[in-house]
Amino acid sequence: MLTPKENFLMAAVEHKKPEWVPNEMSDVIMVGGAFESFENGPAGGGLDGFGVTWHATESAGGQPVPGGKPVLDDVTRWEEVVKFPNLDEFDWEGSAAMQFGIMGADRDQRVVEYGIWNGQFLRLTHLMGFENALCAMLEEPEACDALFSAITDYKIELVERVAQHFKPDIITNYDDIATERGLFMSPGTYRSLIKPHHKRLNEAIKAQGIVPFIHTCGKCEDVIPDYIEIGTAAWSSAQPMNDIAGILQKYGRQIAVVGGYDTNGRAGLEAATNEEIEADVKRCMETYGPYGSYVFMGFRLVSGSDMMAFLGALAPINAAVEKYKKR
């Protein structure tokens, strides 16, 4: 019998039908992400390594959000204005020990996945604000391209340190380029301005012997073929406003889908009942599970930032997964 790690990798990396539907929220040791103060500011809010102010939230489960006056108001002046974090000042060994202490370190049984938050597009929006960033991409594409390149250079330096200190199986680049209705930009703009930098980051991850994933919330199905072309092994956190079944049927041998749970609907609410949660887990297992190359991922946002409250909100989801996953 396969270990949870072997079963997960069979679906997410080898793009085969596993023995049972893996569960991202139980089969994976998740590190990085929120623990990167140089990317998201200190706990409780403050400045990140780029000089962007972050605020903790109650409504988003304590997740920080950028706010305040934009750091960059003219993208053509980015070289004069934008400063990058000094990654050598971060306590990598201490952070790795702390995170594995919290999340667990059973590498033989579970996959280690490092999340690099604030991808190339998102970092531009954090520096400029969404409206100004989108206008800049239309009005000053050459300057945006140069800034994206510099951000990617920085991300590659980050990957090198992550590889040394965390030795993950997977690195996920978090770049939310879509809303629930579609991409923030045209597919053509994505392909000309962002895709080359996603590709270069993927190549750097692979050069370290690590598998690249991409996290994109929202309706991004138009660029799934592009994610495949640049060597992305899996797409998370796939939401059901996309044709997930159609994507698995058409592209399942080339890219895995991680997600499926209706985080935007009733099942994703703090007030969701156990019956609503179980019904949506069952829908995912029955609709997407038969294709293979599928990993379930589901969570609910809870008020505040208490870790125990978040884990408590996951418990009925994980219980339903155990009930409906097929062995």
TrEMBL record:
Molecular-function GO terms, alphabetical: uroporphyrinogen decarboxylase activity
InterPro entries, per the entry: Methanogen_methyltrans, UROD/MetE-like_sf, Uroporphyrinogen_deCOase
SUPFAM superfamilies listed in its UniProt record: UROD/MetE-like
Pfam family of the protein (one): URO-D
Superkingdom assignment: Bacteria
GO biological process: porphyrin-containing compound biosynthetic process
Annotated ranges, domain Uroporphyrinogen decarboxylase (URO-D): 69-296
PANTHER family noted in UniProt: METHYLCOBAMIDE:COM METHYLTRANSFERASE MTBA (PTHR47099:SF1)
This protein's name: Uroporphyrinogen decarboxylase (URO-D) domain-containing protein
Organism of derivation: Acetobacterium paludosum
Lineage: Bacteria, Bacillati, Bacillota, Clostridia, Eubacteriales
